[in-house]
Amino acid sequence: MPISKHTYKNTDITVVWQPSLCIHSGICFKGLPAVFDPRGRKPWIEMDKAGTEAIVAQVKQCPSGALSFFYNNDVEGEGKDVG
Ligand code: SF4
């Protein structure tokens, strides 16, 4: 069965959340509650509530790997000839 993934974007990055990996540690919610609010808000991750750097720093704290991110430029630039 494919692993379920949810994505949340701002102009710089895309945060990926894999619910099956989340151990509900609350670290994201305690660290950056404006962005990460699992108490029934939809979407539970709101990317416009903090700056990209703060969100990246928080995503890196996720102990289970449920949260990850990539820069939107990386995808757009894929295969681009920069020479
Ligand atoms: S920090 Fe990671 S494991 Fe903990 S609640 Fe947030 S997404 Fe889930």
Describe the structure.
- This protein has 83 residues and is of the alpha+beta class.
- It has one domain (6-75): Alpha-Beta Plaits, CATH 3.30.70.
- Helix content is 22%, strand content 17%.
- The chain is built from 3 helices and 3 strands, in the order E-E-H-H-E-H.
- It has helices at 27-31, 52-59, 72-76, and strands at residues 6-9, 13-17, 67-71.
- A 3-stranded antiparallel sheet has the order 1-2-3.
- 17% of the residues are buried.
- The structure holds iron/sulfur cluster (SF4).
- Residues 22-28, 62-64, 66-67 line the site of iron/sulfur cluster (SF4).
The percent of residues in helical segments reads 10-25%
What structural class results from the helix and strand content?
alpha+beta
**Main beta-sheet strand count, sense and barrel state:** 3 strands, antiparallel
- Enumerate the spans where pLDDT stays under 50 for 5 or more consecutive residues: none
- Give the helices and strands as they follow along the chain: EEHHEH
* Molecules bound to protein: iron/sulfur cluster
Give the oligomer, counting copies of the same chain as homo and different chains as hetero: single chain
Shape: globular
Give the beta-strand count.
3
Helix count from the secondary structure assignment: 3
CATH topology: Alpha-Beta Plaits
How are the strands ordered across the major sheet? 1-2-3
Tags for this model:
83 residues, alpha+beta, Alpha-Beta Plaits, 3-stranded antiparallel sheet, 17% strand, binds iron/sulfur cluster
Write the layout of secondary structure elements.
Layout: E1 6-9, E2 13-17, H1 27-31, H2 52-59, E3 67-71, H3 72-76
The structure holds iron/sulfur cluster (SF4).
Iron/sulfur cluster (SF4) binds at residues 22-28, 62-64, 66-67.
